[in-house]
Amino acid sequence: MGTVIAVTAALGAACCFALAAVIQHGAARDTGEKLLSLRLLLALARNPRWLAGVTLGALSFAIQGLALAFGPLALVQPLAATDVLFALPMIAVARRYRLTRGDWADAGAVAGGIALFFAVAPPSEGTRAPGLAAWAPVILAAAAFAAVAGLAALRARGPAQVIWLAAGAGITYGVLDALTKSTVDLLADRGFTTLLRWEPYALLAAGILGTLLSQSAFRAGALSVSLPVIDTLEPVSAVLIGAFVFGERLAASPGQLAAQLAGGAVAAAGIAALSRSSVAAMEAGPEDPASQGADHALQVPRRP
User: Fold this and answer.
1) How far is CA 123 from CA 26, 71, 242, in A?
2) Measured by CB atoms within 10 angstroms of the end CB, which terminus of the chain is less buried, N or C?
3) What is the rounded CA–CA span in Å between residue 113 and residue 120?
């Protein structure tokens, strides 16, 4: 029963986050503030449409927390990363564009790869609250990568800039997901005394950094470029943290592990292909503000 709740909640979180991302992307493209600046977040905080997206994102985060309370990171995060499968049809509807057979084939590769990953051997639970010593290398490595990605993005232009920002956001969100898992389990075990520990505050810091990077990526270019990058790196980093920090077990045999890796590779390839899909080309076409250097927003209806 716990697995059913985790799977259902993870897919619900993916759908909710996809809608939030579409709305936030439209608002982020509307602002003229510089990338990776607090002024960008302050400007967005005055935008009612962006705040509506934030509300949906918070709902997605709460649903994801429910999923993590009933399932391991290695189960929940690959499912939560399927938000790109919900977002692309929303973008297509918003832009009055019909998805091609290639788009559907790439989406099928994502779904099939994830299905294979879980069909071979569902991941098992690990340690509920790893110590700071286990966390320290992960947090330092993620912070260093986010810094490098931010600096590289400031020097880059076009799709490369979007990809660097999205990569930093994806790794940061993977850490955020793992911290959410740890905090949810601590709250279940210790109640509000969890607020005396470091995890909730690291969770808050990761959330702010991830938001800054993701909104900068949304500001910089097409959602169909940034979202697949985030959805590739976020679950990969979360699954690795689950295995090496939480001790979650994946496959029990080399053959099963190989099949899981193959499924993960197919899903990652499908997500990467979606960043070069016809929707991405359409978003970057002449009608897109980014291609003309304009600062006006990608027009997205309030209810895609």
Assistant:
1) 37, 9, 10
2) N
3) 11
The pLDDT of residue 299:
37
- Written as one string, the DSSP assignment of 192-223 is GGGGGSSHHHHHHHHHHHHHHHHHHHHHHS-H
Ranges of H-type helices in the chain: 2-30, 38-45, 48-70, 73-80, 83-94, 101-120, 132-155, 159-190, 199-220, 223-244, 254-274, 278-283, 289-292
If DSSP codes are grouped into helix, strand and coil, which group holds residue 82?
Answer: coil
The confidence band for 288, taking pLDDT boundaries of 50, 70 and 90, is: very low
CB 21 within 8 A of CB 223: yes
Who contacts 111 (Cβ-Cβ below 8 Å, separation ≥6)?
82, 85, 267
Q: How far apart are CA 103 and CA 148, in angstroms?
A: 32
Position 295 pLDDT exceeds 70: no
The percentage of residues in the chain with a pLDDT greater than 70, rounded to a whole number, is 91
Answer with the residue of higher pLDDT: 122 or 135.
135
Rounded Cα distance between 194 and 173, Å, is 21
In whole angstroms, give the CA distance from residue 212 to residue 229. Answer: 16
User: CA 88: distance to chain centroid?
Assistant: 14
The identity of residue 146, as a single letter, is A
pLDDT band at 155 (very low <50, low <70, confident <90, very high): very high
**How far, rounded to the nearest angstrom, does the alpha carbon of residue 149 sit from its chain's CA centroid?**
16
Task: Provide the 10 A C-beta neighbour count for residue 192.
Answer: 7
